[in-house]
Amino acid sequence: MHRLVRYVFLFALTLAGLAHATVVGRIEAEGGQVERWGADGQPRTAHVFAHIEQGDLITTGPDGWVVLSMVDSASLTLKGNSRMRIGDYDFKPAEPKRSNIFLELLTGSLRSITGLIGHSNPQAYLVKTPTATMGIRGTDHEILVITQPDELQTPVGTYDHVYDGRTVMRTVAGSLELTAGETGVAHPDGRVPEHMSKQPAAYDKLQKFAKEKGIDAVLERLHRHSGQGFGLPPNVTVTTSAEPKTADKPATESSSTTKADTTTGSDADAAKAGTTSSKDASDKPTSDAKSAADAKTDKPAADTKTTADSDSKAVSTTDSKTSSTSTEKKTTPAPVTPPAPPPKHK
After folding, report:
1. pLDDT per residue as tens digits for the range 235-276
2. Fold of 87-231
3. Is 102 exposed, middle or buried (0-12, 13-18, 19+ CB in 10 A)?
4. What is the pTM of this model?
5. The dihedral of CA 242, 247, 248, 253: what is its sign?
6. Contact (Cβ atoms closer than 8 angstroms) between residue 169 and residue 158
7. How many Cβ atoms from other residues are within 10 Å of residue 84's Cβ?
């Protein structure tokens, strides 16, 4: 009974782990020795159409290879003797600017053909290697990490060849931008990455391996050609949340301007109407006169009374002053004329 309960408990934990796993892609094609390990360190299935989850570690043997088709229409291709960890692959279709990619290439090769994340938000794409970090600008490129000299005597370091688009190689000392057809190298001593005048022979070997294993045919099926490399699939277009806002902005400004112009015109008309003569005012409709009368009637009673009292007081004062002045004039005596002297008798 206890053993049964234990099995049920472990099964429940497994289902819970699967429910919380973030699926970020699937295995589109593979060959030779390919292994996949989950974020918990446990082995996972690595057959065609098997899901790829965030945190997975993908490894290939000497003759192994795998093509991963990702949720944003990107593809990741590993060839022989490669090890890559998917640190973060967070795709938000409604908010591409908030999407992120963080990959770790520990050894071997990785050909990355960017999808919607890389085209909508290039700054969100980062590949870390033992000697450098890689950024992209909407790109088809192939990184090669040599941790010890191979049979071709390729020096230890991180190499990057760009088929289409641009990449940026960064170390603690500085950065190097690469464009289509160029190859760069980041040395283990941390110096600034350098351009290479000639592509290392190791890349010729990788390209020959891809043709022999049919990898190029798989990429042809997943992507359309772009320059010397590949781009997004034919049925996928780049859209961002910021584009509709940018497109709508001029229209909004136009509407605001129109509204402002209309308001300004009305204000001008009103100002013009305010300077109309009394004769023109008498020609206004009765409704306007009624509205003005109503507005006058709507004044508070207290204000009307106060005004009336004030007016009456002013009138009273004036009348009183006038009456007083008038009385003073009436009571002022007229000048007395002395009588004429009597006539003299002869």
Report:
1. 666 554 444 333 344 333 333 333 333 333 444 344 334 434
2. Jelly Rolls (2.60.120)
3. middle
4. 0.64
5. positive
6. yes
7. 26
